[in-house]
Design goal:
The chain has 454 residues and is mainly α. It folds into 2 domains: 167 residues, no CATH class; 179 residues, Diaminopimelate Epimerase, Chain A, domain 1, CATH 3.10.310.50. A 5-stranded mixed β-sheet has the order 1-2-3-4-5, sandwiched between helices. Helix 2 packs parallel to helix 11, helix 7 runs parallel beside helix 10 and helix 9 runs antiparallel to helix 10. The longest helix is centred in the N-terminal third of the chain and has 38 residues. It is elongated. The protein starts with 11 loop residues before the first helix and ends with a strand.
Length: 454
């Protein structure tokens, strides 16, 4: 890549390192944009970005007219480069014909003999390629030394400024559409400070087999906790599924997966590995639904994700954790019982504002993707026209035709997967025994499930 206003080129490592400050710049602009949430319309930023690009194109058109002779000179350079390429491609064709003739002359040649001939001609191809590169670079150096390009200098800077303007405007606009997280005023200071993990979370089921919900921060009302316990007990009785539903303010290290893993390891949720652990960090805005090792076939990762998106996430966005957790339990039970999924119509109005914000962000992203794509296409076509993409345009030296790919790869790929149950309503081998004694059945987790944030 040429450095504007110089004849120097960046190597691959330096070019990669330049991406770091670019990413930092984009992130910083996004953070700045978030400070103007609800104050500046993102579409105004889109309009400004379009104006900047229009100004650059207009100035470029004027500059092209002013230095029209350079465009003609660049066309001559392109033609000379095509002649160089044509000369060396002709040599490649001659080598290919000679190679085929030698191979055809060996009527009963073994594959090793044919490969030896190809290797010999491959070496000749590399010699031809080196000669080509030497002549091409010599020509370009000589040309650049005798032809000063005002257009090249202008457009190199124009392309850089255009891309920076579009990326910055995109980041700023998306920042404007992101609502800053409000501080919750309804949850106690104690809940704000403490964090929970598998080591310190209280598990009521260990002492009372009818209790499946752990709610140490009292995020859920007791009435809802009781209702959820009834649903989860039905799952236990009818489908032999032991559950642990955990909702806390903060999860240690904001890592629900680590907490799920720890709960399975410490408490062994699930008789016959048919357990279900659900962990929700209400203030962390994170969750994970993790079926036990033997339950993954009955509750797939996709179904876990659908349950969260249908019940948990909309409720949590609406700051209605009671509804979210209760409907999640009911929806999970309905899935195993092959019943109609419960509807959560009471929340349809609240998440709509959030959906509108997400929709705005998506529209902005699509607009800027179109602008960046259009600007990239324009930059590429202009670079070719003005000659600073001459190497890419004219150096169409044929690829090495003497490499033998016929052996291919016999990569004995092994199939893998897990044996999953095909039936939802598996029969219980122990029936409706009493739950009063408490404790879990020693189950484990196979790593399946779904989680995320809202």
């Amino acid at each position: 890549m040429d450095i504007p206003f110089t004849q120097k080129k960046l190597n691959g490592l330096t070019g990669c390192l330049l991406s770091i400050p670019t990413l930092l710049f984009i992130g910083a602009i996004g953070v700045i944009g978030q400070q103007f949430y609800d104050e500046i319309s993102p579409y105004i930023i889109v309009g400004l970005a379009i104006i900047i690009i229009a100004v650059i194109v207009s100035l470029g058109s004027t500059t092209n007219k002013k230095y029209a002779n350079e465009i003609k000179e660049n066309e001559k350079m392109q033609e000379e480069l095509r002649k160089i390429v044509g000369k060396y491609n002709a040599k490649v064709s001659d080598l290919e014909k000679s190679c085929k003739s030698e191979i055809n002359a060996l009527v009963s040649a073994r594959s090793t003999q044919k490969q030896s001939i190809r290797s010999n001609y491959s070496s000749k191809y590399l010699d031809n390629w080196r000669e080509y590169e030497k002549e091409r670079k010599s020509f370009e150096s000589s040309w650049n030394a005798t032809h000063k390009s005002h257009l090249k200098n202008f457009w190199q800077w124009a392309f850089v400024i255009g891309f920076i303007a579009l990326l910055g405007a995109c980041s700023f606009s998306l920042g404007v559409t992101m609502k800053p997280e409000p501080e919750s005023s309804d949850i106690s200071a104690l809940m704000q400070m403490r964090t929970w993990s598998a080591d310190n979370i209280p598990m009521p089921h260990m002492t009372d087999g009818t209790q499946y919900v752990s709610n140490p921060d009292s995020i859920l009302s007791q009435e809802v906790v009781d209702s959820i316990n009834v649903v989860l007990r039905q799952m236990d009785d009818q489908f032999d599924i032991e559950s642990a539903m955990i909702i806390v303010g903060h999860i240690e290290n904001d890592d629900p997966i680590a907490m799920v893993r720890g709960v399975y390891q410490k408490y062994g949720v699930g008789k016959n590995n048919r357990g279900l652990v659900i962990v929700v960090g209400y203030l962390d805005h994170s969750y994970f639904i993790a079926p036990g090792r033997a339950l993954e076939g009955d509750l797939t990762d996709m179904e876990s994700d659908q349950l969260a998106r249908r019940y948990l996430i909309p409720s949590m966005k609406a700051e209605q954790p009671d509804s979210g957790m209760l409907y999640l339990a009911r929806g999970t039970y309905a899935l195993f019982a092959s019943k109609d999924m419960p509807e959560m119509s009471s929340l349809t109005s609240t998440p709509k504002a959030e959906d509108d914000e997400d929709s705005t962000g998506g529209i902005i992203m699509l607009i800027f993707m179109a602008l960046l794509g259009g600007w990239g296409f324009y930059a590429k076509s202009m670079a070719r026209k003005l000659g600073f993409a001459s190497t890419g345009l004219a150096s169409g030296l044929r690829a090495n035709p003497f490499i033998d790919f016929s052996s291919g790869f016999s990569g004995g790929g092994s199939s893998y997967g897990s044996l999953r149950s095909s039936s939802r309503s598996s029969s219980s081998s122990w029936g409706g025994s009493s739950h009063s004694s408490g404790g879990y059945g020693g189950g484990s987790w196979g790593g399946g499930g779904a989680g995320g944030r809202w």
